[in-house]
Design a protein that fits this description.
With about 475 residues, the chain is an alpha/beta fold. The chain is built from 15 helices and 21 strands. The model has no long low-confidence stretch (mean pLDDT about 95). This is NAD(P)/FAD-dependent oxidoreductase.
């Protein structure tokens, strides 16, 4: 081990994924010296094993599905996808798992990168053990931001460790198409990867413990996605749990709680996430290793004056874009406190309050059809004690939908707070709806009254005209 080096920074960031990068960007923009510590690739889970590779796999799947619904074009796209070309493009989109470009960006904003395992060693102190055994001690004048993200959580099943199951990482980085793939889970990772690999040539079986897919969205979202997966050739089984997994030669054998025996080449478990906090020294500051970190709306850890937890690790909204939003809020709060401002803007929707985490979290599921939602579902709003009304519209009734695709199938719902006549939540399901959701996010986050939305005129003929249909249905 080389001689220990001790350096003082204004801010130390643990984790160089999109969240850590955005914290560093905001603190550097405020003139604060910033160190970033990363044990893997700069760019993090999203860039190499989640958002980017999964969407690279899904884009040709969705484009082909859309083209097959367009008269005059449909007969040209009936063949199989070129799987090697799709996988090669996926490799390109993740820079072949090299982070030179991301490192260059960090350097460009003036942040110092330390490669290695970063661990807290008491208040405001982080030690870094580098890949070659070098050791650094970093001290933060103002803040340490934990941005280490989350990892896939595998269930405790007999025989699981011996079969080398896929997690989201293997599912997005696989070098070949498995002949038979079992997907365990019914959430976003499960549905997206089932969609991608079925279209690329796998025979996919989806095993869902609950009643349906995408249980955190409106029920019709999961129903339409399950229907489409089944039509594509996948076997979707709800109310089904895995009892055991083993390999017999090259064949993977799964036994369900109903006693069914299923065979496959690979199995993907998409059954939850765990915080990557088990080896970052939380015990040195009185916190539990491996735990989620509770924070206030400025993203400061409960009970601390200097520790922030941003992104997945705080368990508020496990989405890259939401983590980046939190990073912008946290960066502003860190800078304001470093400047000594007596009061921060921590009221709802203030500059230093991550209010959208509670009221306006958007998400797009890139299945066929796409499912997109923001804010509260009807059930969530009712459970919160709000006086609400749900308004539903069949998307196929919108002129733009019929032009977009022959036989377009989709649905939209808005949840209206009857006391304020503003929107608490919006859900769209159908081809191409992912690009609609930001308009809904603006309406929900902006608390735009129904009376004003009536004056937001959608262009004709677009799918966005669904907004007019929803408002007409509400007004009667």
């Amino acid at each position: 081990m080389t001689e220990t080096e001790s350096i003082v920074y204004d801010v130390v960031v643990l984790g160089a994924g999109p969240v850590g990068e955005n914290v560093a960007d905001r603190t550097r923009a405020a003139g604060l010296s910033t160190a970033v510590v990363e044990s893997e690739l700069v760019g993090g889970e999203c860039s190499y094993w989640a958002c980017m590779p999964s969407k690279a796999l899904l884009r040709p799947v969705i484009a082909r599905a859309d083209a097959r619904r367009v008269p005059g074009l449909d007969h040209l796209v009936q063949g199989s996808l070129d799987a090697p070309a799709v996988l090669a493009h996926r490799d390109y989109e993740v820079s072949n798992w090299k982070d030179d470009g991301q490192v260059g960006w960090l350097d460009g904003i003036g942040a110092d990168l330390y490669r290695g395992q970063g661990r807290l060693a008491g208040p405001r102190t982080v030690t870094v053990t580098g890949p070659d055994g070098e050791h650094h001690v970093l001290t933060a004048r103002h803040a340490v931001a934990v941005c280490t993200g989350s990892r896939a959580l595998l269930p405790d099943l007999p025989g699981l460790a011996e079969v080398n199951p896929w997690t989201s990482r293997e599912a997005t980085s696989a070098k070949s198409v498995p002949g038979r793939l079992i997907v365990v889970g019914g959430g976003v990772v499960a549905t997206e990867m089932a969609t991608a690999w079925q279209a690329l040539g796998s025979q996919v079986t989806v095993l869902v413990r609950g009643k349906g897919l995408l249980s955190r969205m409106e029920p019709f979202a999961g129903e339409l996605v399950a229907e489409a997966l089944t039509e594509a050739g996948a076997d979707v089984r709800t109310g089904t749990s895995v009892e055991s997994v083993r390999r017999e030669g090259d064949t993977l054998v799964v036994v369900t709680d109903a006693g069914d025996r299923l065979e496959a080449d690979e199995i993907l478990f998409a059954t939850g996430r765990a915080p990557r906090t088990e080896d970052i020294g939380l015990d040195t500051i009185g916190l539990e290793p491996g735990s989620w970190l509770s924070v206030d709306d400025t993203l400061r850890v409960t009970g601390s004056e200097w520790l922030y937890a941003v992104g997945d690790v705080n368990h508020r909204a496990l989405l890259t874009h939401q983590g980046k939003y939190q990073a912008r809020i946290a960066g502003a709060a860190i800078a304001a406190r470093a400047e000594g401002l007596p009061l921060l803007e921590t009221d709802a929707w203030g500059a230093h309050a991550a209010t959208a985490d509670h009221a306006a979290v958007p998400q797009v599921v890139f299945t066929d059809p796409e499912a997109a939602a923001v804010g509260l579902s009807l059930a969530e709003a009712e459970q919160a004690g709000r006086r609400v009304r749900a308004v539903d519209v069949n998307l196929s009734a919108v002129a733009g939908a019929g032009l977009y695709a022959d036989g377009y199938r989709g649905r939209a719902r808005m949840v209206v707070d009857l006391d304020s006549e503003t929107l608490l939540g919006v859900t769209f399901v159908g081809p191409g709806v992912g690009e609609l959701i930001h308009s809904a996010s603006i309406a929900v986050a902006g608390e735009v009254p129904i009376s004003r939305l009536w004056h937001a005129v959608p262009s004709y003929p677009t799918i966005s005209e669904v907004w007019l249909r929803l408002l007409e249905a509400y007004r009667g």
